[in-house]
Amino acid sequence: MLELTEIEKICTLALIHTPGIGAVTIRQLISYCGGAEKVFQADFKKLINIPGIGEKVVRAILCKESLGFAEKEFTSCKNSATHLHFFTDPTYPARLKPLYDSPIVLYSRGDFDFNMTRTVGIVGTRQVSDYGKSVTETIVKELEPYNALVVSGLAFGVDITAHRACLKYNMPTIGVMASGLDVIYPSSHKKTASEMQENGGLVTENALATKPDFMRFPARNRIIAGLSDVTIVVESARKGGSLITVEFAQNYHRDVYAVPGMLGSVHSEGCNFLIRDNKASIFTSVGDMAKAMGWEQNGSEPEPVRMVQMQTSFEGFTQDEGQILALLKQKGTMQVDELAWQAGMHLNKLAALLLNLEFQGMVRSMPGKKYGLI
C-alpha cells in the first residue's frame, strides 16, 4: 500500500475524534467514499446512503469540528518524534491488519519493527511474587536465541519485570499503553520507558495527553494479544487484565501458554484454571514452547511477517472472496455497483467482503467507488 498523504492522515485522525464514530464505522466510511478526505468532502445525501450510517453520524461529520483538533494533533506528533501508523499504511502491523477490532491508527515512539518474525506477549498480575519475577526473567533470557520481540503493558508486576529483563539481555521490547505516549503510567516507570526506546519502544492507540482511564486498559490488552504470536501468562488471579488478554488472543486464534503455580496460591489461580479448562497450554520452558511453535534457534530465519501477497489460485479465501478477487484480476478495476452485479451479491454483503479483503492487503479502494487489486 502507498503511504497516505498528510491531508489524508489528518482527515483520518479527525474521523477518529468525531463523536459517535467507531473503528468499524470509519472503515465503512473510508471504503465507500474512497478516502478519509473524501468523507469530509461528501454531502448529506451521499453520506446518509452509506449502509449503517445514521443521521446523527452524518451531521457530526458535516460539522467538521474535529478537523482542527486533528491538525494540532498531527503537528504535535511531528514535533515530538511520535510516529503515526494508519491502518492503510505499509508501516501498520501486519498481525493487526486482518483483525475485526484493530485500531485505525497507532502512535509509537522508539526503534523497532512491528513485523519481526516472532513476537511474544508476556503478561500477568501486578502483585507478582518472587517466583513470578524469576520465571519472567528466565523466559526473557531463554527467548534471546529466538530473536523474538517481547510485548507487554508497562504495568506493575509481571509487565515491568519482562521489560526490564529485556533491557538486561538486550532484547527488543515494546510497551502497549492505555494512555497517550506522553502520559507514562505508572509514572515510576518513566526511566524504563525511556530506556526501552533504544531497542524497542512504546505503542498506543490513544491521542497525546490521553489519561489512562479504566476503560482503556481492556482495549490496550487486545493490542497486546493482537501483536503477539503467542501470549504467556506468568501469574494471574481468577480475575484480571491478563485473562482479558487471553480472551482476545483466543478470539484471534493465537497460541496461549500459562505458567503453572502452587496450589492455593492466589497469584496462580488464574493460570491453573486456564490450564485446567484447556484455555492455555502448560508452560514448561521456552524450548518446549518453541518446539511446539516450530521455531529454530539461530537458524535460517524466515521472512518477517508482511501482508499476504496475491495468489493466482486465491487459496485461503472463501468462495465469495475468491470470486471478487478473480473478477478484479480479470477486469483490473471495477465500480462497486458493477462488481455487485457481476458477482450477484447484495451491496451490503459485498461492502463487508471488500473491507475484509482491504484489511488483508488484497484490494484497495479508489475514488468513484472503484476497487482494484493491490
TrEMBL record:
Protein name as catalogued: DNA processing protein
Residue ranges annotated for the Helix-hairpin-helix DNA-binding motif class domain, each copy included: 13-32, 45-64
GO terms assigned for molecular function: DNA binding
Organism of provenance: Dyadobacter psychrophilus
Family: Belongs to the DprA/Smf family.
Lineage of the species this protein comes from: Bacteria, Pseudomonadati, Bacteroidota, Cytophagia, Cytophagales
Pfam family, one: DNA_processg_A
Gene Ontology biological process terms in this record: DNA repair; DNA-mediated transformation
Gene3D superfamilies cross-referenced by the UniProt entry: 3.40.50.450, Winged helix-like DNA-binding domain superfamily/Winged helix DNA-binding domain (1.10.10.10)
SUPFAM superfamilies: MCP/YpsA-like (SSF102405), RuvA domain 2-like (SSF47781)
